[in-house]
UniProtKB/TrEMBL annotation:
Higher taxonomy: Eukaryota, Fungi, Dikarya, Ascomycota, Pezizomycotina
Residues of the Alpha-carbonic anhydrase domain: 44-273
Gene3D superfamilies given in the database record: Alpha carbonic anhydrase
Name by which UniProt lists this protein: Carbonic anhydrase
Species of provenance: Zopfia rhizophila CBS 207.26
UniProt-listed Pfam families: Carb_anhydrase
PANTHER family: ALPHA-CARBONIC ANHYDRASE DOMAIN-CONTAINING PROTEIN, CARBONIC ANHYDRASE
Amino acid sequence: MLVQSLFALAALPAIFACPQHDNHRPMKSKKRQAAPGALPPTGQDWAYEASFNWGRLNPNYTLCQTGTQQSPIVLGLNNGLSLNHIPTFTYPSSVTGNFYNWNYGPAFTVTHDGDWTTHPSFTYDNQTLYLKGWHIHAPADHSVGGDRSKAELHFVHVDSTGHEKAVLAFRLDPGNSNSTFFNQLPSMIGFNETNVQEEITLDLTPALQAVQYFNEFWTYQGSLTSPPCHEGIRWFVARQIIYTGVEQMQAILGASTYSARAEQEVWQHRINE
Ligand SMILES: *[C@@H]1O[C@H](CO)[C@@H](O)[C@H](O)[C@H]1NC(C)=O
Ligand SMILES: *[C@@H]1O[C@H](CO)[C@@H](O)[C@H](O)[C@H]1NC(C)=O
Ligand SMILES: *[C@@H]1O[C@H](CO)[C@@H](O)[C@H](O)[C@H]1NC(C)=O
Ligand SMILES: *[C@@H]1O[C@H](CO)[C@@H](O)[C@H](O)[C@H]1NC(C)=O
Ligand SMILES: [Zn+2]
């Protein structure tokens, strides 16, 4: 079974990149170790530096060119803030998972025992979604009011059958004190060592606290920010920024490589509707 799953991972087509967070098996030892499931796709045929052209590279990426709800988009207070789709959170104070580098920056995949409904969750519009993992892009995908943060943290959520449905986006910038959330992380795994992972236990609530549990946010109907650019993802972008210490931001940037898609034209995104 294990051998089969590892083979299935290795055989995945090289098309996903907001990472799939599929390295969710419990580790035999908590030490930093080889991580077959965390390996970046080989033979990837696209690059963030040329995101304007993804739709022409591969027939599977047509949506990147023709989609009506592509992410990211420009946001600002001229959009107002959302009064709809208010999220409420059921995040425990301790979550175990694998810390690794998704080839573009630090990432964490929640350990999965086959039942998504045991994961940290949030609820909006009477539906509950479950945290699959988080990862960081640098610089930020979403600019707000013309300002682009140094990095953006994505909490990827799936439904009870494991399909990706929503992303919580937190903008990250350097400030005057260390962030409680980032204080918990071990030394960052660099993008030059992407085949390792380490089992850690985190309290994710400081990230939510830092943005006041999304009491002010923008929401819209969007897509994955990398090929194949699948749509049907609801984005929640916190108005508040998570501020980190200068050294913390340097560690994040030192472990990251350019991973922001060019912003897309607003079309059928129904911002805040
Ligand atoms: C498109 O995706 C399918 C299914 O994942 C895959 O079998 C096929 O090789 C892909 N085509 C190209 C040109 O990459
Ligand atoms: C949520 O459920 C309640 C009670 O069934 C219902 O009144 C309400 O309209 C639902 N809200 C949404 C957004 O579906
Ligand atoms: C933040 O933490 C680092 C070490 O982790 C420490 O060197 C630095 O002084 C701290 N900065 C502040 C502002 O507390
Ligand atoms: C990866 O980068 C870190 C930080 O720059 C460096 O200390 C480490 O030696 C590098 N590892 C490899 C395998 O190149
Ligand atoms: Zn992402």
